[in-house]
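Board notes (copied after class):
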Amino acid sequence: MKIAIEGCAHGELDKIYECIEALQERESIKIDLLICCGDFQAVRNNDDLKAMAVPEKYHNICTFYKYYSGEKAAPILTLFIGGNHEASNYLQELPFGGWVAPNIYYLGRAGVIWFGNLRIGGMSGIFKGHDYLQGFWECPPYTQNSIRSVYHVRALDAFRLKQLVEPVHVMLSHDWPRGIAKYGNADNLLKRKPFLRDDIESNKLGSPPAEQLLHKLKPDYWFSAHLHCQFAALVKHEDGKETKFLALDKCLPKRRHLQILDLPIEYDGDKLLKHDAEWLAVLKNTNHLLSVKNIDSHLPGPGGNERYDFTPDDEEKKNVLTLMSDLTIKSEDFVRTAPVYNREIGRAGYRSESR
């Protein structure tokens, strides 16, 4: 199995697919899956541009809309997490994940899926401490505050991922796990990004919940983006397990934004995308903890009088399988929910029509 890992996509799907196709031809290989580590920018139309937290000069429609409209077809199964520059109104339609276009799948605010025999988990957004404990209160039309807070990681997402006990092979986050710099060549990183020195030395660079998940889940691989540079690290856990970490750059010429991961044939399986029974059971077990209020929501823990361990048992996972019957995630289930970009109208607006 060969997987292409992309850093920040920034809406440049045409360029990313062209790069992969050129690589396949040059190396005589076939890529089975493309994973993008955030700032995907699934922009369908001009309204989506307005829901993206970027300066107006960066309100570029880019090329995702072609795959949403059906003008083009994604040549490779594509999986992505959200970053801090997204069409948040669209991704909020799919908080637990789903198809944003045929053959292009969003993992959700947090999620776990299977591709063949490879188990992939991820967490969208970036960490900001002042929003971490809040509920999922944001909704369009966004304010100057909510257009940014909507992509901030929430405690419930990390709490749910911490319930996992079955092995995770690949984990994704947009920002880096806090403290990861000490496991790689930090001196070389600072030569390229000297402004990171204070954050590294004060241990403020990166996401604390991602750091906790790194040491709890101990995945084989962890991929990130966000800081627009390539950085590799090797985390050796106390029990002897190792996590290979790699951050990648954004999609620009002469930048290290793409990496090929070559995995043994044992991971191939049927090479289909499937829901994960343990994760679905965790979601079911913790549904009552979901808050949509603009206030801090404290989660249960040891010492209280309520359940705080939501790792599902065999019976709970069996119930999920009974309810779902088929865990396969089928691309034909994709449905357009908004008008698509109209080149004739351009940035001024779009024609309101049913597609």
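Comment from the instructor: Residues 2-348 form a domain with the Purple Acid Phosphatase; chain A, domain 2 fold (CATH 3.60.21.10). Residues 336 and 355 are 7 Å apart (CA to CA).
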